[in-house]
Write a structure and sequence with these properties.
3 copies of one chain form a homotrimer. Helix content of chain A is 13%, strand content 27%. With 342 residues, the first copy, chain A, is of the alpha/beta class. At the B-C interface, helix 3 and helix 4 of B face strand 21, strand 22 and helix 4 of C.
C-alpha cells in the first residue's frame, strides 16, 4: 500500500478501468467490476492491490505474491499463483506506468502565486501558473500555462519555459528556452557558463559563453544535474530525453530525441548524440565526438571516438561490448596462467 | 591554532580533562593540571596544543613536531620528540575525534525562528527548533526538538525530521521520514522522483514514484548528494551511515547500518548493502544487486554482481581485490614482454 | 549571431579595434575601418561577423565558412576561403577570448541591494556591491567592492570575499576566505564539513572539521561543485585555478596556481597539486598524495601514487600515458590471438 502521508490515491478503480486504460488482456475469467484499491510491490501486495512482474530476478517474489492483480508477460503466466488475476500485456512495465498515472497523477500542493515570490513586472506568466515561496523570476521571463515553479528557484532574465512544466525547488535556470511538459528536479543548474577559457603559460583567459540552452518537450532533468549553455552555438536537449541526477552536460552538447542519460554521466563540450541513445551511469564522453542513434554505452565506460548507430560499447577506453567482455576474459585467463602468488 | 574567526574554542582544558574524556594513558609522568589551549596539526602545533599521530606517511611531521600533547599508538612512542606529552590510545584518531567535540562542540549561529521563514500553520515544530531565513516548511511537516534548518532550505509536505538534526542551507527534502541526530549538508536533495519510466520505440512513459525515503538515526549526508525516493518500495538509509558529497542513491536502494559511502559514488536502483560496508570514491554499483556486510570496494570500481560478506573488490568490472592487483601486474608484464615501440 | 534575447552586444567594432586588442596580424590588405558586427561560429558566421579556427576537426567548416573575419594560425592560411579577412595570431583561441570580452563583457542585471535580502548589521559590504533577492549574509561577513551575490545564495558568518567577485544563485559558502575576481557558479557549496570521522566496530564518531577554505584570486568554480573545508589544516585553491562543474575537493586538498580541474573530478582528502596541473573529467585522486606541477591526467584515470612534475598519466590505476596506451594495445592483441568466440 502506498504511503498515504505523502501520496493521494485517486482510486479505487475497477478491473475494467485498468483494462481500458492499458489494453491488457485477462487470462482467466474475472468479474470486471472487481475493485482495485491500490498499487503495491509483489512482496507486499494484498488481495485488492495491483502489481507487475517483468524482471526474472524477482521470480520467487512473483510466484509467492499475494497480489490480487498483476500485469505479466504471456510467457510468465505459468509462474503465477493460482488465485492471482493476471493482466497480460506485451510490456507490463508500461502497463504499470499507466496504472501509476491513473492512481497517482501528477499533482502539486502549490496552489497559487506565493506572496513572497519576487516576480519582475516585465515577466509574463500564463494562466494557472503556480509559483512557490521565495522564487525569483527576473525581467522578460516568459512562462506558459499551468507551469509550476517550486520554492527558492531562480529563473534568470529572458528565460522561456513552456506549458505544464514543473520546476522543483532550488533550481537555477538562465539563458535557456525550454519546451512543454518538462520536469526539472531539485537543484538542477541550467544555462550557466560552460568551462571556457584560452590557456597559455601565463594562465587562463575567460571566453565569454554566448550560446544558450534549448530544451525540447517532455524532457526530464535530474536533481543537481548541470547543463552548461553553449559557447557560441547552443546546447540542445531533444524531445523526450530522460536525464538522471548529477549529470554534467558541457557547452554545445547536443542530444537527439529520447536519449537516456543515467546518473553521474559526463559529456564534454561539443559532443553530439543521435536519438534513443542510452548512456549508463558514470559514463564519460570526450569532447567533439559524434555518437549515433540507438547506441548503448555500458556504465562507467569512457568514450573517446565517434560511435556509429546501434553500436554497443563498454570499457574505458570504450570498445565494442563483446570486445570488452573478451578483454576481461583474457585478462583473467592471463592471471590464471601466470601462477603468480602475492 | 584553529581559526578564531570561524570557530569558538570552548577550552582551555586540562590534561586530566582530556584523559577523562578519552581514557588515554600517559606514557611519562606529567602534571595533570597542565593546560591545553587548542588543537593543531602536527606540523604547526605549539607547546600548549594537542595533536594526534596515526598515519605513517606523516612520521617525519610527528618526529619533528612541537606539539605539547599528542594522541599516539603505543608502538609509535619511540618516534616521538622527547618533550612531547604522549597520550597513548589504541585508536588515536577516535581520541582526537573526542577532543574536537570537547573543544569545538556542534553549534549554530541560528538563534531562533527567522521572521522571513515560511512555515505552514499545519506544520508542527518541537521545542527549541531553529529555522533560518527564507526556509520553507510546508503542510504537515513534523520536526522534533532542537533541530536546526538553515537558510533557503525547503521541507516539503508531510516530511518528518527527528530531534537534534541539522539541515544545512539550500537543501530540499520531500517524501522522507528522517531520524534523530541527522546532519544533512548544503545542497543535498532527498526524496525527489527516482529515474523511472517505461520505454518503447515511441519514447518513455513516466512511472509515478510512490515510495519514500527512510533515514535512520545518526546519519550524515554530504553536500549536493541526491537520494531518490522509492519507486513503490522505500529507499532506506540505516543508522550511522556516513554518506559523502555528490553521491547518487537511486530509488529503492537500501543501506544497512554504518555504511560508508565516499564521494561521487553511484548506486543504481534497488541495490542493497549490508552493514559496515565501505564504497570508495566514484564507485558504481549496478541495479538490483545484493552487497553484503563489511564489504570493501576500492575507489572507481564497478560492481556488477552480488557480493558476499567481507569481500574486498576492485576494478571495473569489480573482481576480488587480489585478482585486480594480479590483473594489473600481468598487464604490465605483458606490455614489457611485447617490446612494442610507439 | 549571438542571441539578443540573452546577450547585449557592445559592438560593432572596427577591424582596427580588434587588431589593437589582440595584436593579430592581417594577412591580406584590408580597410582597417571595416565594421565587425558580432561573433559567430564558423558554420553560421556571415560577412560582418568574426570567428576563429584552431581545431583541425572543423577544417571543412573553416574552408566553407562565410565568416567575414577569422582568427587563424599562420599555417592554416592556405585552407581559408579567399574572401575571408584573416587575422593571424599564434593563439587564435586566446584572440577569440579577447574578442568575446570586448563584444560581451561581464555584466549583471542585478542593479543594487535587494530589499528582500537578509544582511546582518554586523556584515561589511564594500562600494557598489550588488545583492540579489533572498540572499542571506550573516554576521561578520566582509565583502569587497563591486562584488555581486546572486539570488538565494547564503554567505555564512565570518566569510571574506574579495573585490569584483561574482557569486551566482543558490550557492552556500561558509568558513572561507576568498580572493578577488572570483566566479562561483550556481549551486556550488564551499566550506562545509569534510568527510571526517573515526570508525570502530561500534560505528563512526564525528571529527569536528576545524580548518577553512582559502581561495586565491581569479579562480572560477563550477556549478554544484563541492569544496570541503579543512579538517584542521586548510583547503587551499591557488590563484587562477579553473574548476568545472560537479567536482569534489575533499578536506585539506591544496591546489597550486592555475590548475584545471575538469567536471566530476574527485580529489580525496589531503592531496596536493602543483601549478598548471590538469585533471581530465571524472578523474579520481586518492588521499594524501603529492601531484606535481604541469601534470596531465587523462579523463577517468584513478591516481593512487605520487606523481612527479610534468608526468602524463592515464588509466585506473593510473600509469604513464604511453604505458596505458600499450596496455590497451596488448590487451586487444591478446584478445585477437585468443580466437575466443562468445
Amino acid at each position: 500500500m502506498v504511503n498515504k502521508r505523502f501520496f493521494l490515491n485517486q482510486g479505487p478503480f475497477l478491473l475494467k478501468d485498468l483494462i481500458a486504460a492499458t489494453n491488457a488482456k485477462l487470462v482467466r475469467d474475472a468479474d470486471l467490476n472487481l475493485q482495485i484499491d491500490d498499487l503495491a510491490p509483489l512482496e507486499n501486495a494484498k488481495n485488492k492491490e495491483l502489481s507487475f512482474f517483468v524482471n526474472r530476478s524477482y521470480l520467487s517474489e512473483f510466484s509467492n505474491s499475494n497480489a490480487g492483480f498483476c500485469f505479466v508477460l504471456e510467457k510468465d503466466i505459468k509462474h503465477a499463483p493460482s488465485s492471482m488475476i493476471l493482466l497480460v500485456h506485451e510490456h507490463p512495465h508500461k502497463a504499470y506506468a499507466i496504472a501509476t498515472n491513473l492512481f497517482y497523477p501528477n499533482s502539486s500542493n502549490i496552489q497559487d502565486i506565493a506572496k513572497t515570490a519576487y516576480i519582475s513586472e516585465k515577466a509574463i506568466l500564463g494562466n494557472n501558473c503556480k509559483i512557490g515561496q521565495f522564487v525569483v523570476i527576473e525581467d522578460d521571463v516568459v512562462i506558459s500555462d499551468n507551469t509550476i515553479i517550486e520554492h527558492n528557484s531562480v529563473i534568470k532574465s529572458g528565460v522561456i519555459i513552456g506549458a505544464n512544466a514543473k520546476i522543483h525547488s532550488n533550481v537555477t535556470i538562465s539563458h535557456s528556452i525550454i519546451g512543454d511538459n518538462v520536469i526539472i528536479h531539485p537543484g538542477a543548474k541550467i544555462g550557466q557558463d560552460g568551462f571556457g577559457f584560452a590557456s597559455d603559460h601565463t594562465g587562463h583567459m575567460k571566453i565569454q559563453q554566448l550560446g544558450i540552452v534549448r530544451i525540447g518537450n517532455n524532457v526530464e532533468i535530474g536533481a543537481n544535474t548541470t547543463i552548461d549553455r553553449g559557447s557560441i552555438q547552443d546546447t540542445v536537449i531533444g524531445d523526450m530525453c530522460q536525464i538522471d541526477n548529477l549529470v554534467q552536460l558541457g557547452h554545445n552538447v547536443k542530444l537527439g530525441t529520447a536519449c537516456v542519460i543515467v546518473a553521474q554521466v559526463g559529456i564534454a563540450g561539443s559532443s553530439k548524440l543521435g536519438n534513443f541513445t542510452v548512456l549508463g551511469g558514470q559514463v564519460g564522453v570526450a569532447g567533439h565526438l559524434n555518437i549515433g542513434s540507438q547506441v548503448q554505452i555500458a556504465a562507467q565506460s569512457g568514450v573517446v571516438k565517434d560511435v556509429a548507430d546501434k553500436q554497443k560499447l563498454g570499457g574505458s577506453p570504450a570498445v565494442p561490448i563483446r570486445q570488452w567482455h573478451k578483454q576481461n576474459y583474457c585478462l583473467n585467463k592471463l592471471v590464471k596462467n601466470s601462477n603468480i602468488e602475492e
